[in-house]
Amino acid sequence: MVEIAICLAIIGVALVAIIGVLPIGLRTQRDVREETLINQDATVFMEAIRNGAFGLNDLTNYVYAITNYWGSYNPNGTFNKNGVNGYTYSVGNTTPPFPMSPFPINSGTNIIGLLSTPEFTDLSFNPTNNLFSGGYSNHVVAYVRSLSGEADEKPPQDNALIVGGSFAYRILSVNAPVAMDTNMFTLTPFQPNQPPYNAALAASLHELRLTFLWPQLPNGNLGAGRQTFRTMVAGQISQIFTNGQWLYFYQPQAFTNVVSAQ
Length: 262
Prior knowledge:
It is built from four helices and ten strands; from the N terminus they run αβββαββαβαββββ. By secondary structure, it is an alpha+beta fold. It has one domain (36-251). Strands 1, 2, 3, 4, 5, 6, 7 and 8 form an eight-stranded antiparallel beta sheet that branches. A hairpin with a 5-residue loop joins strand 7 (205-216) and strand 8 (222-234). The longest helix has 49 residues, at 2-50. It is elongated, with a radius of gyration of 25 Å.
């Protein structure tokens, strides 16, 4: 009996240790799975935005909301006010001075056009390199259900519990102008073409940064997952005004020519 009791005690201690390790293993497996899904989805969004993709209407099954938190600046560069533009599949809500007409994200073109919104736009909503002369700063966030993952979570799945419980995340999309020397706004005998070159470089080269934040929890909060993907995009950003909303698209084959100041 003594031997049996000792054996049971040893087995009990071992089981406690094993049971204590299981949650760690499950959490690690979940984290690895989520990072794999993020890496796969990031490739799709990075390529779609950097190539100025039209179409891709399948994105409407996964991007269920986009929000632009913007701030406006006066012509002298001082802060004026801020606002929020919200877009869903069926309707869009905007705050003046942006157009008031509803703009739904019911096509892949609309989604990519909003995600490509430049970090800075001037008072006429054209992409700009800074806000020295006034304009808008844009903070674009997309709410996305994972494109990858289990097949039973994907369309045409219409069970609200399954869809609502699928892996979701947010994307912070930043389309920033290339950094340039702001002290070189005047010509010098030694660098007669530098200011036009800086302007052309800033107009034809941008940094695209997509920051993924996950998981998106049912209560609206976020988990601890963070990862940023960066790439440089050579080409201009074109703009299209459709249904009361400005959309922006990278044009990798279109560049601004350098004009000689001489």
